[in-house]
UniProtKB/TrEMBL annotation:
Acyl-CoA dehydrogenase/oxidase C-terminal domain: residues covered: 180-238
A Pfam family annotated for this UniProt entry: Acyl-CoA_dh_M
Matching InterPro entries: Acyl-CoA_DH_CS (IPR006089), Acyl-CoA_Oxase/DH_mid-dom (IPR006091), Acyl-CoA_Oxase/DH_mid-dom_sf (IPR046373), AcylCo_DH-like_C (IPR036250), AcylCo_DH/oxidase_C (IPR009075), AcylCoA_DH/ox_N (IPR013786), AcylCoA_DH/ox_N_sf (IPR037069), AcylCoA_DH/oxidase_NM_dom_sf (IPR009100)
Keywords: FAD, Flavoprotein
CDD domains referenced in this protein's UniProt entry, alphabetically: ACAD
Domain (Acyl-CoA dehydrogenase/oxidase N-terminal) ranges: 1-67
Species for this entry: marine sediment metagenome
Record PANTHER family: ACYL-COA DEHYDROGENASE, ISOVALERYL-COA DEHYDROGENASE, MITOCHONDRIAL-RELATED
Residue ranges annotated for the Acyl-CoA oxidase/dehydrogenase middle domain, each copy included: 72-166
Single GO term (MF): flavin adenine dinucleotide binding
Cofactor dependency: FAD
Entry protein name: Acyl-CoA dehydrogenase
């Protein structure tokens, strides 16, 4: 975990090249593994770039050491992954924010110890200046429902997350208040990089299975790899993957 994060917080101090290679190899083993690993990279990015030293010690280090499990709560029922369409709210009340709303299809929700949650803190402002990001720890006011019957990545522990009058301490705000957009754009870098790398690994595994099957399956007295309709597709797939 945390290949590209500083050693002082439990990372390995490596670069993006090493992380992409690792994610690709995890993708060979299945789609769920890179999905879960990517959460550490995504949430870790937010904490590393925008978090205070205290926040890094409290949440980043344990995540990189595998002591805490994290999840990113972005997608909502009405807006999908439309960041600026989020309807979850966080109302300031003294030294806490009172958070209400729900998120859906949240990978890793089932086993998460804490969530990176985007919520609307200023409904009267423009979309860019109305959202903030918080670390919300799992508790009685945070309900997680597992989502069954997904097409793939079923080991990712995806779920619905309901926040009902969750009191989030002010010190759990990541970055500045109403500055969630800045954090979101930064977070998209590891999200896209890790997702693409994991997909490449899964594609390589699928291609190896297809090529192996074409060397075993026989039709009309010969292996189906001998038919151009099959061999050309395998060859083209290898070219595209490279």
């Amino acid at each position: 975990l945390g290949l590209r994060f500083p050693e002082e917080y439990g990372g390995r101090g490596l670069g993006w090249s090493e992380e992409v290679v690792a994610m690709s190899e995890l993708g060979v083993l299945g789609g769920s593994l890179p999905c879960l690993y990517s959460l550490v990279s995504i949430v870790g990015e937010a904490l590393h770039v925008f978090g205070t030293p205290e926040q890094k010690d409290r949440w980043l280090r344990p995540a990189l050491e595998g002591k805490l499990t994290v999840a990113e709560a972005l997608t909502e029922p009405r807006g999908g992954s439309d960041f600026f369409g989020a309807t979850t709210t966080a109302r300031r009340d003294g030294d806490v924010y009172v958070l209400n709303g729900q998120k859906r299809f949240i990978v890793g929700a089932e086993g998460a110890d804490y969530f990176l949650v985007y919520a609307r803190t200023n409904p009267d402002a423009s979309s860019r200046e109305s959202l903030s990001a918080f670390i919300v720890e799992k508790g009685p006011e945070v309900e997680v429902q597992h989502v069954y019957g997904l097409l793939g990545t079923r080991g990712g522990g995806a779920g619905r997350v309901y926040f009902r009058d969750v009191c989030v301490p002010r010190e759990n705000l990541i970055g500045r208040e109403h500055g969630g957009a800045e954090l979101f754009y930064q977070m998209m870098i590891p999200e896209r990089m890790t997702s693409a790398a994991g997909a490449l690994g899964a594609a390589r595994a699928a291609l190896e299975i297809a090529a192996r099957y074409s060397n075993q399956r026989k039709a009309f007295g010969q292996k189906i790899r001998a038919f151009e309709g099959v061999s050309f597709k395998v060859a083209e797939s290898i070219t595209l993957l490279d």
